[in-house]
Amino acid sequence: MNRFAICFLFLIVVNLAVCAQSWTDSEFKKANTAGNANYLTNEEKNIILYMNLIRIDGEKFYYTFLQDYIDNYNEKVKKYRNYNDLKLTKTNSYYLSLLKQIKVKNLPLFYPDEQLASLSRAHATDLNKNNLDTHESSNGTKFSQRLAKYFPNKPMSENIDFGYSNSLDIVCHLLLDCGVPALGHRLNLLDQKYKFNTVGVSIQRHPSYSWCAVIDFVAQPMFSANRIP
């Protein structure tokens, strides 16, 4: 590894350490609702952790972990000729609109559910196998039909992210929602309208985008039998 690579890695570690210092141990513990969900990978557990940190203190997340994601993203795309088009700046309209929406605090948290995670995994695997990038299954089944079989008459939604396998990258990419005028992915993460509190998560390979992540959301009664305490 050359000296530049070592320095770059050191800077990433330092930046993450600075982010972590802005959050308390109790906040991390509170956000880690998936810590004991042994049916999830560590990155899948961390997707839920980062989504919960947003809901604990959205503005603090904006100035810590999101800023770290943006700095690292901009560093990575410097190698491309169209860097000026690709880079994320503080004048980016999605970045600015997010600041207005993310000033949330102590929202209800997301909890993992094994059945819902199984449904997320099945869809992510289907996307991989059939090289799809849609909420519909390869057989034409809509996401609401897939989920309603096990979660009937419940509010539900689904986020799908392509291109990332790292939990922080996935969450921040969905949170910014660049290029998605309706901001549907962002609104799911910041949801207060539908009272989403149960999530399924799966990260799988994808032939066209390298990786895909499926996150399913359902609103359930507060004390679900499948919930990890």
From TrEMBL:
Signal peptide: 1-20
Gene3D superfamilies for the chain: CAP
InterPro entries with a match to the protein in the record: CAP_dom, CAP_sf
Residues in SCP domain copies: 81-209
Keywords assigned: Signal
Domain of life: Bacteria
PANTHER family named in the record: SCP DOMAIN-CONTAINING PROTEIN
Protein's name in the database: CAP domain-containing protein
